[in-house]
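DOMAIN: structural biology
WANTED: fold as tokens
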Amino acid sequence: MTRSEKLHVEAEELREQGRFAEALVKINDALAGYQAQHDQAKVSEVLQSRFLIYKHLFLWSGDIAYAFLARSDARSSFDIAQELALSEVLPSVYFRLGEAEMLLAHFKEAVANYQKAVESYPGESAEKGDWRYHWGEALYRSGYKAEGKKKILEGLAEIQKNADHREAFLIHVWESGAFLRLADLLREDDPDLAKDYFQKAKKIIDADDRLILRKKQLDQLIL
């Protein structure tokens, strides 16, 4: 593992711990290293990682500047991947673009990007299920509630079906995330079902003390 790759991993670990300022220092050093190596695929990937730091900073603080910084990194990652025809990076870039538009409540734009992400994703996996339920959330918030709910449940089933092939931590992140989305979206349309999904998310989050960011989201969700 190169120094830049080590910094990249450390930054992602710090992000998951909610230590965003430290994560930014590490991720910027990793970015500089990848640029010095002229590894554009890694530059595109590390910009997606920095996007996630800014995304969570926005979600935790409500400071809109972080949402714009996140979207800027998502777009830069896309431009690099598209210009250099980095086909292996493009699916995840579309997913980050979808997330960026969700931060700004641009739901129709998010739907379009999530759809491209899922449809360009190679094969079947738990991660694809994660992407699919995000697509469902965007559809629901765009007004296509039945279709959106169906797609979230399809994504959740995909995560659970392929759980044995990924690290337990990621499965817990993705599965609890799907339950939290359902709880949030259904709290007015179907309050009883929303509470059921909330409890399912809570059970997963309470059982894994590494889910620091999910615990924060759980605490913020009032049913």
Notes: The mean pLDDT is 96. DSSP finds eleven helices and no strands in the chain.
